[in-house]
């Protein structure tokens, strides 16, 4: 399976198709950090929100860059379960790269401040919470991108529709007075939680929420791929 | 392996492509899938290979190592021939040195050495098809599934396909081949699966059902005599044409299915020194394993002995 992950990452990086989401991600981060200095945890919470659609789009591109027949060849060689898992894993690895850039970026452009006043979180704690926020958003974004991939949607139009409805839905359903917040992954609630004091139980709840959402979305992907080679 | 009551349709409300297909075949067997365009030959092959999952029914006892050669190789990938085959070898579970050995072996065997560093999108259709063949053979397959393998291949490579199948069978594997151009006369002993109206009819191999076409070169002056003698020997002469260019020599020692003309001690009808001046007669002979020698006194010239026809 590692071989297939490597083959797919190589295919993604060599085609130049990886460039579009990377540029979009950098643009979004540039806009986000252009306004002034923020404390790390708050800034990273918002960064995870703006990166959610970018990571989902990146996943869709990574899965779609491989021709359908090549995906079927891989399925014949390694079996259907590993073929699906390798695609998700490759997308997660690529996503981790983007997350790493997002964590380093604000320090390079002076978008965050290292100064801490009395009662503030330490910088290390802020970075750790930022990493946590991104790691909650990444699997959900990978699952959304997988559901929007050509293997599932079969047409470019449906693929874009699934991707945009998912991305916009995560923002709209995540607003503080949303009636159905559970339908979306908790990227917005996480960002809100990071602006104030975050209790351990709230962190645990958000993590469990993200986990359940990802499991349900990936189950949908696996079910859809059963009949879609 | 067996296909048990296999039904398949591509969409929930789509038409059934296969309805209750029921076939079985075992190690050392080869089957040819025949049928009109769009009748479901590729679908059947993909079910056997494990690309598609039956909507109803099941496929049981599929060998672990399956080599699938798709009808069109997916050449739109950013890899070189060598890089792609190495990647596919690793996918098949081969480790470092074993991958290199297997890739080198198949690249040489299929005449891909010149293209080792060429990127896949730059390959011609036939060369890409050879890469498709190579990736299926990297790990010795227990089941080799070939979808129109002769499409786009040159004469030398066409002869190679039955050879590869023979090796898979000798290794205890099985092979499944689809064909709509009658090339499968190169596979004597194959059972025939005919796909029509969603059902598959299997037919055991028959000894003398096939017909092969032998092309002979004879001096222009002796055409009438040669044709008369071939007819007298019971062969069906299809046509006589001018000899344009000598075909590329493939594998003269081919012990292929159709017996070729045997040299005759009688007066030679072909001098063999000036083949370009010779018209060519195509004669149809039964493709049965029993020697059906031509008594026309035409020595066999090295060259593709049989242009296939059914």
Detail the topology: elements first, then pairings.
The complex is a heterodimer of chains A (229) and B (310).
Chain A: H1 2-14, H2 19-33, H3 40-64, H4 68-78, H5 80-109, H6 123-147, H7 150-153, H8 156-172, H9 187-195, H10 200-226
Helix pairs in contact in A: 1-5, 2-3, 2-5, 3-5, 3-6, 3-8, 3-9, 4-5, 5-6, 6-9, 6-10, 9-10
Chain B: E1 2-8, E2 18-24, E3 30-34, H1 41-49, E4 56-60, E5 66-69, H2 81-91, H3 96-109, H4 125-137, E6 143-147, H5 155-170, E7 174-178, E8 191-196, E9 199-203, E10 211-217, H6 223-232, E11 236-241, E12 280-286, E13 306-308
Parallel strand pairs in B: 3-7, 3-8, 5-6, 6-7
Antiparallel strand pairs in B: 1-2, 1-4, 8-9, 10-12, 10-13, 11-12
Characterize the structure shown.
- The complex is a heterodimer of chains A (229) and B (310).
- Chain A is globular, with a radius of gyration of 18 Å.
- Helices cover 77% and strands 0% of the residues of chain A.
- Chain A starts with a helix and ends with a helix.
- With 229 residues, chain A is mainly α.
- In chain A, 45% of the residues are buried.
- Chain B has a six-stranded mixed β-sheet with strand order 5-6-7-3-8-9, sandwiched between helices.
- The chains are: A mainly alpha (229), B alpha/beta (310).
- Chain A binds chain B through residues 3-4, 6-7, 10-11, 14-15, 66-70, 72-80, 226-227, 229, and chain B through 46, 49-53, 55, 66-68, 70, 72-74, 76-79, 87-88, 90-92, 135.
């Amino acid at each position: 399976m590692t071989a297939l992950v490597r083959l797919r990452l190589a295919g993604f990086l060599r085609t130049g198709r990886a460039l579009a989401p990377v540029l979009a991600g950098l643009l979004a981060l540039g806009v986000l950090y252009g306004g002034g200095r923020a404390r790390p945890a708050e800034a990273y919470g918002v960064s995870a929100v703006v990166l959610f659609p970018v990571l989902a789009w990146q996943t869709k591109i990574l899965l779609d860059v491989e021709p359908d027949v090549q995906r079927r060849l891989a399925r014949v060689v390694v079996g259907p379960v590993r073929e699906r898992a390798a695609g998700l894993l490759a997308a997660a690895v690529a996503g981790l790269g983007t997350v790493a850039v997002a964590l380093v970026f604000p320090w390079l452009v002076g978008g965050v401040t290292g100064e801490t006043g009395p009662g503030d979180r330490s910088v290390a704690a802020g970075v750790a919470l930022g990493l946590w926020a991104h790691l909650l958003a990444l699997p959900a974004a990978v699952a959304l991108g997988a559901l929007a991939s050509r293997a599932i949607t079969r047409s470019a139009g449906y693929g874009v529709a699934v991707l945009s409805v998912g991305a916009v839905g995560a923002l709209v359903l995540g607003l503080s007075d949303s009636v159905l917040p559970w339908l979306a992954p908790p990227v917005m609630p996480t960002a809100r939680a990071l602006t104030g004091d975050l209790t351990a139980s709230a962190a645990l709840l958000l993590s469990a929420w993200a986990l359940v959402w990802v499991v349900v979305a990936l189950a949908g992907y696996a079910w859809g791929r059963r009949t879609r080679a | 392996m067996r296909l048990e009551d296999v039904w398949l349709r591509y969409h929930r409300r789509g038409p059934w492509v296969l309805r209750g297909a029921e076939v079985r075949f075992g190690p050392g067997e080869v089957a040819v899938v025949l049928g009109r365009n769009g009748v479901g030959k590729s679908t059947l092959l993909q079910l056997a290979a494990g690309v598609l999952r039956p909507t109803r029914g099941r496929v049981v006892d599929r060998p672990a190592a399956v080599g699938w050669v798709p009808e069109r190789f997916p050449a739109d990938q950013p890899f070189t021939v060598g890089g792609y085959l190495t990647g596919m070898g690793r996918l098949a579970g081969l480790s470092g040195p074993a991958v290199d050995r297997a890739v080198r072996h198949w690249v040489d065997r299929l005449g891909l050495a010149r293209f080792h560093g060429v990127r896949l999108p730059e390959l011609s259709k036939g060369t890409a098809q050879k890469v498709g063949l190579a990736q299926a053979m990297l790990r010795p397959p227990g089941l080799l599934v070939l979808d129109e393998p002769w499409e786009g291949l040159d004469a030398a490579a066409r002869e190679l396909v039955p050879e590869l199948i023979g090796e898979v069978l000798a290794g205890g594997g099985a092979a499944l081949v689809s064909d709509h151009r009658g090339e499968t006369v190169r596979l004597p002993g194959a059972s025939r699966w005919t796909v029509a109206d969603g059902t598959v009819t299997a037919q055991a191999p028959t000894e003398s059902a096939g017909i092969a076409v032998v092309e002979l070169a004879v001096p222009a002056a002796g055409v009438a005599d040669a044709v008369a003698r071939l007819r007298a020997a019971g062969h069906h002469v299809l046509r006589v044409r001018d000899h344009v260019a000598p075909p590329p020599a493939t594998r003269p020692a081919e012990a292929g299915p159709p017996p070729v003309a045997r040299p005759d001690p009688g007066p030679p009808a072909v001098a063999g020194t000036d083949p370009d001046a010779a018209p060519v007669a195509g004669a149809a002979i039964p493709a049965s394993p029993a020697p059906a020698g031509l008594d026309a006194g035409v020595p066999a010239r090295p060259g593709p002995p049989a242009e296939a026809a059914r």
